Amino acid sequence: METLLSLLLGVGLSAACGFRVFVPLLAMSVATQAGYFTPAPEFAWVGSLPALIALATATALEIAAYYIPWLDNALDTVATPLAVIAGVVVTSASLDGNLSPMLTWGLAALGGGVAGGIQGATTFTRATSTATTGGLANPVVATIENLAAVSLAVLSIVFPVFAGLVVVLLGWLFARTVATRRRTATGERQP
């Protein structure tokens, strides 16, 4: 049961990495400092004061950068692989050290996939916003993503089961949206 809760925590934090790379890492650091989270032994560094300062700085810079009109789209190019890596890190840091390395990294790869999927959806949303509004709506998109990252990171630490359900819901909504767009595009092409 503890392994399942650890996995749900990691997957929830991974999904938050898809919205903002550093927010979940900062949440892990704060939670570790406060005694609410104990990372896997090889990730104990996340609870150190230097890590907290570095992650807080990186989080502030990342959040601010998404409000700069041309930089937000450019940042998605870098954020996509970083989100996958961060998803792997937060998932593996969440799992207890009693699992085999193969299982740990296999589950961590799942977290990386979740982070990559969310990041892909946010990149698509921002590109659509830029194309349809000339970027005027991008700060609104950035604000929603920031709120989603913070909310999901905190929710994952406090209520990992509920965070896991939220991630499943997000995946279902994304799959449904993609399927609807495909049906619409196919229907428009037919004579």
Concise summary:
The chain has 191 residues and is an all-alpha fold. Helix content is 83%, strand content 0%.
Supply the helix-strand structural class.
Answer: mainly alpha
Largest sheet: none
Total domain units: 1
> Which ranges are low-confidence, i.e. pLDDT below 50, for 5 or more consecutive residues?
none
Q: End-to-end span in angstroms?
A: 54 Å
Mean pLDDT, nearest integer? 91
- Shape designation: globular
Q: Encode the helix/strand succession as letters.
A: HHHHHHH
Number of helical segments with 4 or more residues = 7
Rg is 17 Å
Protein architecture, described:
The chain is mainly alpha-helical and 191 residues long. The protein has one domain (2-189). Helices cover 83% and strands 0% of the residues. It is built from 7 helices and no strands. The protein is globular. It starts with a helix and ends with a helix.
Write the layout of secondary structure elements.
Layout: H1 2-19, H2 22-34, H3 49-65, H4 69-94, H5 101-133, H6 138-158, H7 160-189
State the main characteristics:
191 residues; mainly alpha; 7 helices
